Amino acid sequence: MELRHSPRIGVMGSSDCSPETYNLAHEVGYWIARSGAILICGGRSGVMEASARGAKEANGITVGILPGDSAAEANPYIDIPIVTGLGNARNAINVLTSQAIIAISGSYGALSEIALALKCHIPVVGLKTWRLIPPEGDPPQIILAESAEEAVSTALTLIR
Amino acid sequence: MELRHSPRIGVMGSSDCSPETYNLAHEVGYWIARSGAILICGGRSGVMEASARGAKEANGITVGILPGDSAAEANPYIDIPIVTGLGNARNAINVLTSQAIIAISGSYGALSEIALALKCHIPVVGLKTWRLIPPEGDPPQIILAESAEEAVSTALTLIR
Amino acid sequence: MELRHSPRIGVMGSSDCSPETYNLAHEVGYWIARSGAILICGGRSGVMEASARGAKEANGITVGILPGDSAAEANPYIDIPIVTGLGNARNAINVLTSQAIIAISGSYGALSEIALALKCHIPVVGLKTWRLIPPEGDPPQIILAESAEEAVSTALTLIR
Amino acid sequence: MELRHSPRIGVMGSSDCSPETYNLAHEVGYWIARSGAILICGGRSGVMEASARGAKEANGITVGILPGDSAAEANPYIDIPIVTGLGNARNAINVLTSQAIIAISGSYGALSEIALALKCHIPVVGLKTWRLIPPEGDPPQIILAESAEEAVSTALTLIR
Fold first, then answer.
1. Once rounded to an integer, what is the mean pLDDT over residues B21-45?
2. What confidence score (pLDDT) does residue C95 get?
3. What are the φ and ψ backbone dihedral angles of C114, each rounded to 5 degrees?
4. A 81-110 residues with CB below 8 A of B?
5. Which of B108, B134, B136 sits opposite A119 (nearest CB)?
6. Across chain D, how many H-helices and E-strands are there?
7. What is the pTM of this model?
8. How confident is the prediction along chain A (160 residues), in pLDDT tens digits per residue?
């Protein structure tokens, strides 16, 4: 199997989410896998589980970059658990490993990942996510999408 | 010298800032040291340098948690350089090491630190900083301050 | 593809190695893939490249946990680059992500990984590697192997 | 107080040690502080506690770089707790922050720190510590000392 030229798309969102957000993340994961991209996520519950589940339904590959020190922490849809033991510091790895990120709703963890992606010039696509008003200058370049499919196709365009 | 009961206040802000922001950070550092607290910061230029400089002028102690792999990267007002070699992942350490943080203006790095502090239930005081509108629910608890002295006294009150 | 029940074996060794060591690592990678396990390594040159190359020749899956902040640093046989930006601190992730490690010859980086694996109770198989004499008590449990194939079959036995 | 030109010496050793090792580490900490150096350690029990205690008895400054996510984990002789939340990955920070390290006896954690220091060209002084026999080439440059005072004076000479 040749994976090394596959795009890597990160999905960022809360471990505890509403059913609507879960469904949206599930659809995002599905389209990521359908497009031939690898799904990168934090490996746990909520948005991370939903997106990995969607990706596996489309026969994709899923990577879960875990905060704790055991692979048992991964949700059942993760193919490759990366066991960091770093706590929240692992958010920086989620971001650097992704060529673009899709932020879906999200709480403070996802906000930290949006911020790090913007800092590292990694494109950010937003689905019903944070609105950020900086202390000075222009608001950050979060590309808003209206649907899961649009979010994924936008991420792929930004990677290329 | 007894330092272990001293409060630890983190100052978060950009390595590249306006003269007004530099002056504000300088004043924040001064009041942190005057109150007997230890200054935690990222150890580099801009807001980090200004606050450490202010703290040294009031005879305080300054800790710089550096992203690179050399202590030479520290600004000249850092007493204790912590050399992490972790890049942006060190932001998580800045936050965990502080009992409260004061965010001064700030770009994406500071935004990631605000997010991580909110996630870890570490109080955040804001001086002319980011305004954050969540996808759902109430906006995060960033306590706004109008002056350097007010920011420091608020941080100390929140720590106790 | 179902990967999540595949064993994960880490290969630790120097980025700069002799032709004999390169060949040995190449063979280890080959047997890891043949056995259906996923290869975990540091993603760079020398032993890491040789083992990933061997694994790809047997149609396996390779993960490279990189120290720098760019996927371009990965050798051409890495399927899934994990971009940590953590420098040597990423060695702890190599170890935690592996269910057993095979140390091949190796310099100080590999020595740090052997030490962390022993600390975390992750089995260590050694091929022409460090000999360690502790300040007190018994020497550490590094299982010595004589060939690449034996090293891999020993690692798999220790995982099960 | 001017600390920024003070040397920084790391003390590495086990969290669980014999009374003899505890006494030796206590004496090392004392001489570090007497020489005007800052003590860097992992902040916990055993060798880390003993050395910090010795340093405080000589009125020195102690920094504890903690693996967990709470400053409460620090031993009572730590002035400045650095709360990393990184688990064993924080060992890399202990090493990079020190200009020389003194390894006292020690288990696998200390062994990983010796290895990382050797990799990063940070001088290592050994007191009753690991003996390391490499797979090829010369054994690593661990400078052996016979007493606490000699270990500290050797470390200082190597820093200058």
1. 98
2. 98
3. -60, -45
4. 86-93, 105-109
5. B108
6. 5, 8
7. 0.97
8. 679 899 999 999 999 999 999 999 999 999 999 999 999 999 999 999 999 999 999 999 999 999 999 999 999 999 999 999 999 999 999 999 999 999 999 999 999 999 999 999 999 999 999 999 999 989 999 999 999 999 999 999 999 9
- Put simply, whether D132 touches A (Cβ < 8 Å) is no
The alpha carbon of A150 is separated from its chain's Cα centroid by a whole number of angstroms, namely: 15
What rounded mean pLDDT belongs to chain D?
97
Distance from CA of C143 to the nearest CA of B (A): 32
Smallest Cα–Cα separation from C107: which of D17, D115, B29, A7? Answer: D115
> Which residues in chain B have Cβ-Cβ distances shorter than 8 Å to A120?
88
- Using CA atoms, how far apart are residues D75 and D54, in angstroms rounded to an integer? 13
Residue contact C87–B85, C-beta within 8 A: yes
* Residue in chain C lying closest to A57 (CA): C1
Chain A residue whose CA is closest to B17 = A136
Looking at residues D26-52, what average pLDDT do you find? Answer: 98
Per-residue pLDDT of D1-20, as tens digits, reads: 679 899 999 999 999 999 99
Let me know how long chain A is. 160
Tell me how far CA of residue A159 lies from CA of A72, A101, A111, A155, B159, in angstroms. Answer: 32, 10, 21, 6, 44
Residues of C in contact with B84 (CB under 8 A): 89
Are D86 and A88 in contact (CB < 8 Å)?
no
The nearest alpha carbon in chain B to D67 belongs to B93
Helix or strand run (H / E) with residue A131: strand A131-133
Which two tokens mark D7? 């040397």
C69: closest chain B residue by CA: B87
CA B1, distance to chain mean position in Å, is 23
Report the pLDDT value the prediction gives residue D55, as an integer from 0 to 100: 98
- Comparing CB atoms, the residue among D85, D88, D89 nearest residue A88 is D85
| Mutation site, B116, B118, B129, B142, interface A, largest A CB count within 10 A | B116
Task: Point out the residue among B69, B78, B80 whose CB comes nearest to the CB of D38.
Answer: B80
Chain D CB contacts of B79 below 8 Å: 1-4
DSSP letter for each residue of chain C: ---TTS-EEEEE--SS--HHHHHHHHHHHHHHHHTTPEEEE--SSTHHHHHHHHHHHTT--EEEEESSS-GGGS-TT-SEEEE---GGGGHHHHHHH-SEEEEES--HHHHHHHHHHHHTT--EEEES--EEE-SSSSPP-EEE-SSHHHHHHHHHHHH-
**Is pLDDT at B15 greater than 90 in this prediction?**
yes
Cβ atoms of C128 and C149 within 8 Å: the answer is no
Q: Would you place residue C2 in the very low, low, confident or very high pLDDT band (cuts 50, 70, 90)?
A: confident
Contact of C120 with chain A, judged by CB distance below 8 Å, is answered with: yes
User: Which pLDDT does position B2 carry in this prediction?
Assistant: 73
